[in-house]
Specification:
The structure is a single chain. Helix content is about 80%, strand content about 0%. It is built from 6 helices and no strands. Helix 1 runs antiparallel to helix 5 (about 110-120). It starts with a helix and ends with a helix. The model has no long low-confidence stretch (mean pLDDT about 90).
Amino acid sequence: MSEESKGPRFVALAMLGGIVPNAIAAFGEEAGWRGYLWSSVRGLGFWKASLIVGTIWGFWHAPVIMSGHNYGTDYAGFPWSGVAMMTAFCIALSPFMGLLRDRTGSSLPAAIFHGTINAISGVTVFLLAG
C-alpha cells in the first residue's frame, strides 16, 4: 500500500475508532459547556452566547497549552500565542456546537462532535510527517 493511500484510511479509522472513547471523555466538558453554561447564557442571544462559551472554553485549555500539550513549546510566542489560537478555535466551533445543542436539546451530539475533533486532531501531523 502506498503512503498516499494511507492518509484517507487513517482519517477514517481515527474518526470511527476515536468517536466513542473521545466522546465519552468529552462528555464531561460538554455537560458543562453546552449543558450548564450554554443554558445559562443562551438568553443573551445565539451569537453572544457562542462568543461567551467559546471564549471560556478556549481559556479553559490554557494550563495544558502552557505545559506544551496541544502545540508543543517550540513556536513563536509560546505559550500565549497557543492560548490565543486555541481560544480562536473554540470560538469558531462554538456556534456549530451551540446549534447542535439547540436543535437536539441535548449535550450528547456536542460531545460526539467534540470527541471526533479530538480523535482527528493529530491527522495533519501524521499526513505532514510523511
